[in-house]
Amino acid sequence: MKPKLLFILPTLPGTPATFSERRLFAMWDSLNELYEIHVLYSHFPVDGVNAVAELRARAITVFSVHEIAKKGVYAFDKQMALLMKEHSYQSIYFSSIYSAKYYIPFLALSPIDARIIIDGGKTRHVEEKLRASNIKSSYYSQAVAHKNFRITRLPEIAIYRHADVVVVFDSMVGDVLKDSLPNQEIRVVSEINSEKDLDRICFETREAFAAAAASPRMLKYPVSEPIMLNYEISNIIAAYNDALRRSTDRYATIVPPGTMIDTFTIERMIFCAESDKNIGIVSPVSSVVLAQAVSSRDIAQFRPQHFIANIGHWHESKHLEEPCFLVRREALAKVGYFDDRFQTLSYALYDFSLKLFQAGYSHVITHEAFVYYAQRHSDSDTLLHEDKSRFVKKWALDGAEFLEKMSHKL
User: Fold this and answer.
1) Could you tell me the residue ranges of all domains in the chain?
2) 271-282 exposure pattern, b = at least 16 Cβ within 10 A, e = fewer
3) 3-state SS string over the chain?
């Protein structure tokens, strides 16, 4: 019996009329000799009926996201769990980084033991890095390096790190990804220019698939058990320092009482932190920040919908404001705990984030992670005024600039 391969792609190709469609069918024909192929797609082309017929004529099993949904299974995680339960796949191949972004987070929730192969293609990370290196303007290069380039590449690089093999069709793209993924196997398949290249790409793709055959692995994130604050301790700052000291994991996830948070939300925060060793702290978003009326009864339905709408939506911020956050233990060891001279949580968070920034770490807010506060700590105006003076006195011009930017935040 041949091992099973799950091929995930966003759109089912039409009847093989164009060269790109013939290339895809030729690859399936080649892999069909090695695997029992299953194809999962989410978008149906105009002539998709003929494409399904073409695949089934090749003894390829075809699954549609919409067909599975008709059975009452709507959520991606439930659909993936259903497929993983019914079939034991040796390999899972993502035809694009976009497919991988959608499905890999849900695969992490399933007990899957399979090699993960991603078709790299030409990602935004590659395009922006090449653009920045080709344009001489220092202003433009800095803008790309510190804004678009940095933020848009993070979700892609994080996704690639969960692959056993990344397949690309361009040696230049392969070189760029090797710089970002030193521990991953990058398999460069020859660029295809004509029909005569089809045999070569089929051979080289098969070689790429065989590359990780001996080492399938579990798709897992590092563990970070949530640490609940103990409000019975003398004051709020002491409660946070107590929680930070109690955590022994690589990442400390600090959770105030009354916070609704689940394992998937923590995984999204870890997923973000794992993408770059210079990320010291990760914050989720909450109903307060989103200014959305979400009730505690609706969280189970709202959270997956919010995640799907915000895949890859991360941004940097110097200002830590969420009382629930995840911090890298290595960064914590370098900057220390909260400064207990502050009396308000707001200024203790500002001080902590400024310490992290000056130590070379960044703070990233991931909109993929959502928490709900049934109750939230509030600081008195009198103490806030006193702590503002204390903050400026401690940080001088850096502190004044920090607060000025806070007042102009959108």
Assistant:
1) 4-218, 226-407
2) bbbbbbeebbbb
3) CCCEEEEEEEECCCCCCCHHHHHHHHHHHHHCCCCEEEEEEEECCCCHHHHHHHHHHCCCEEEEHHHHHHCCCCCHHHHHHHHHHHCCEEEEEECCHHHHHHHHHHHCCCCCEEEEEEECCCCHHHHHHHHHHHCCCHHHHHHHHHHHHHHHHHHHHHHHCCCCEEEECCHHHHHHHHHHCCCCEEEECCCCCCHHHHHHHHHHHHHHHHCCCCCCEECCCCCCCEEECCCCCCCHHHHHHHHHHHCCCCEEEEECCCEECCHHHHHHHHHHHHCCCCEEEEEEEEHHHHCCCCCHHHHHHHHHHHHHHCCCCEEECCCCCCCCEEEEHHHHHHHCCCCCCCCCHHHHHHHHHHHHHHCCCEEEEEEEEEEEECCCCCCCHHHHHHHHHHHHHHHHHHHHHHHHHHHCCC
Residue 293, Cβ density class (10 Å: 0-12 exposed, 13-18 middle, ≥19 buried):
exposed
Is 214 exposed, middle or buried (CB count within 10 Å of its CB: 0-12, 13-18, 19+)? exposed
For residues 138 and 122, the answer to whether their CB atoms sit within 8 Å is no
Instruction: Give residue 361's pLDDT band: very low, low, confident or very high (50, 70, 90).
Output: very high
CA gap 84, 82 in Å, rounded: 6
Length of the chain: 410
Sign of CA dihedral 360, 366, 369, 371: positive
Which helix (H) or strand (E) covers residue 346, if one does?
helix 345-358
Return the CATH class of domain 226-407.
alpha beta
Cβ atoms of residues 373 and 286 within 8 Å: yes
4-218 — its CATH code?
Answer: 3.40.50.2000
In the chain, the N- to C-terminal Cα span, in Å, equals 59
**Amino acid found at 345:** L
CA distance 259 to 374: 6
Give 287-346 pLDDT, tens digit per residue: 776 656 777 788 877 887 787 677 667 888 888 888 999 999 999 999 999 999 999 999
pTM confidence score? 0.60
